[in-house]
Amino acid sequence: MLNLFTDRLLVQVEKIDEQHKIIFSIIEEFYNVSMNGGSKENIVQVFNNLKNHLEQHFADEEGYMIKYNFENYEEHKEKHNIFMRKVYTLENAFKCEHIPLTKLAEANEFFSEGLLTHISEVDDKLGVFLRDKF
Ligand SMILES: [Fe+2]
Ligand SMILES: [Fe+2]
After folding, report:
1. I want to staple 104 with a disulfide (CB 3.0 to 4.6 A). Which of 34, 51, 76, 80 is the partner?
2. Would the pTM count as exceeding 0.70?
3. pLDDT at residue number 1
4. Where is the Hemerythrin-like domain (predicted)?
């Protein structure tokens, strides 16, 4: 277990915090399956699950921003788009027969670092804005 999620990452909006926790648990699952010799099918399956949860989570956050007229919506949405572009690039790289270990290491670093940074630097501000709206 990596235990990436800590209370310091809470944005104090329950619906968002719950999704972040689930995403981190899938990131940990991806780490375990990709770094401990899981089969390619297994790796791709967990990767797809992670991708789907990220897409849904970003769409939900964007929905809240639109609903409550968040002033930094465009900027925040662009950060989501950049994040997903990298996910789709990795998805393409995973289509080859043998996924290189360096790609898996790159993916793991991107998911954990990328999400930690996004939550602490971007979602945190959205949390402050949304806190009294729910
Ligand atoms: Fe976000
Ligand atoms: Fe988020």
Report:
1. 34
2. yes
3. 55
4. 13-126
Ligand 2 geometric centre to CA of 29 (Å): 19
The answer to whether 122 touches 76, Cβ cutoff 8 Å, is yes
Distance 73 CA to ligand 1 centre (A): 10
| In a domain? residue 42 | no
Tell me how far the alpha carbon of residue 127 lies from the centroid of ligand 1, in angstroms. 10
Determine the residue type at 84.
Answer: M
Alpha helices in the chain (DSSP H): 14-35, 40-67, 73-93, 101-118, 124-130
CATH assignment of the domain containing 64:
1.20.120.50
Looking at the chain, the whole-number percentage of residues with pLDDT higher than 90 is 91
Quote the ligand 1 centre to 39 CA distance (angstroms): 31
CA distances from 39 to 10, 44, 54, 74 (A): 33, 9, 23, 39
**Total tally of structural domains belonging to the chain:** 1
Query: Which structural domain range is residue 62 located in?
Result: 11-34+48-130
> Which tokens in the block code for residue 1?
């277990």
